[in-house]
Amino acid sequence: MIRISIDAMGGDHAPREVVHGAVLAALEYKLAILLVGPEDVLRAELNRPVIKQLLGGKDPEAHNISIVHASEVVQMGEKPGWSVVKKKDSSIVVATKLVREGKADGIVSAGSTGAAAVAAQICLGKLEHIERCAIACTMPTIHPRPCFLIDAGASVAWDAPQMVQLGLMGTILAKGLYSIESPRVGILNIGTEETKGTDVVKQAYELFKENGKMNFIGFVEGRDYPLGKVDVVVTDGFTGNVSLKTAEGIARMMNFMLREELMGSLKGRVAGVIGKSALKNLKARVDQNEFGGALLVGIKGVCVIAHGGSKHTAVKNAIRVAKDMVGAGVVDKIESVLKTTNGHSN
Question: Which residue among 59, 143, 175, 340 has its CA within the 20 to 30 Å range from the CA of 166?
């Protein structure tokens, strides 16, 4: 049985929504869940009527849900490096150590992205042949399956050989999590012509062409991945994070404008009632809560970082992603590919 440790105190709505989502995941995905945080606080959450009803009146242990005590909490505003080093009994550190000790197969946190990344690198370490860790995010497209955007904010700048490593890791994620036989990999740029872009992306273009372990399709623009023209989008963390936050803002804007139009007139309200099912499906396709969370790749373990504002549905889906990563053996495959290629052409 796959075991996932949960930073139950991480996130804007912790521990209530995190515990709720973890319980849903344990029941739906048949996982062993290790809730990490102050035992008395977590025990009180598990004793809430809504949770007891979900558990059918049984003890959490009967559904493979257990508590691992951690006395400290890393707050969202704290400096990641300092907080992880100083608060050694924090929920994020203890949850990560469970993976290192072999007591859990992966970790999920909705807390500070920086703290989760620092804890993972300190407690688990980077894979042998990786130069930097990266954040991979799933982005909605016009197709049923999303694409991966990597790096989405772990490092501001990457050099050309390091970008090749991003492409290799993204390829393995797309194959393992979405069963894409030959994922299309593109480098995000201001145009598709080979002559455009910075020196780094032009150098990366040449290295990608030489590498035989990716289905490289060339440069892609920001409008290409929402249209489903690529499965893995490689970029530096600065550009990737801006792209991610812009997409989130546009999705919220469209949701607001659609609601405004539907509620602004009688015809709009009638149309909303008639198209309720279609609108619900549309929302699900662009809702980040449905995608689970960002994946921290390049470390010796599975780490999924959910959005800080995650509620129980998003937490449940983040745990699903962690389960799928463990089941697909993503970490071992990344290590194997980087060992044989060392991030360069073969």
Answer: 143
Cα 308–chain centre separation: 12
Which domains does the chain carry? 1-130+298-346 (3.40.718.10), 136-288 (3.40.718.10)
| pLDDT recorded at residue 274 | 62
Q: Provide CB contacts within 8 A for 129, sequence distance 6+.
A: 335, 338, 339, 342, 343
CB under 8 Å to 338, separation ≥6 — which residues? 127, 128, 129, 130, 165, 168
Residue 77's pLDDT is what? Answer: 78
Q: Which segments of the chain have a pLDDT < 50?
A: 343-346
Q: What is the model's pLDDT at position 293?
A: 79
DSSP-H helix ranges across 101-236: 113-123, 160-178, 199-210
Report the residue count for the chain: 346
pLDDT in tens, 154-194: 888 899 999 999 999 999 999 998 889 999 999 999 999 98
In this predicted structure, what is the pLDDT of residue 272? 61
Q: What is the pLDDT of residue 328?
A: 92
Q: Are 319 and 108 in contact (CB under 8 A)?
A: yes
CA distances from 144 to 43, 227, 291 (A): 39, 11, 12
**Environment class of residue 246 by beta-carbon count within 10 Å: exposed (0-12), middle (13-18) or buried (19+)?**
exposed
**What is the structure's pLDDT at 343?**
45
pLDDT of residue 62: 94
| 82, 21 Cβ separation under 8 angstroms | no
Q: What is the DSSP string of 35-104?
A: EEE-HHHHHHHHTSHHHHHHTTTS-GGGGTEEEEE--B---TTS-HHHHHHH-TTBHHHHHHHHHHTTS-
Instruction: Using alpha carbons, list the distances in angstroms from residue 219 to 186, 242, 302.
Output: 5, 18, 29
* Token output for 131: 């130069």
- CB atoms inside a 10 Å sphere around CB 284: 11
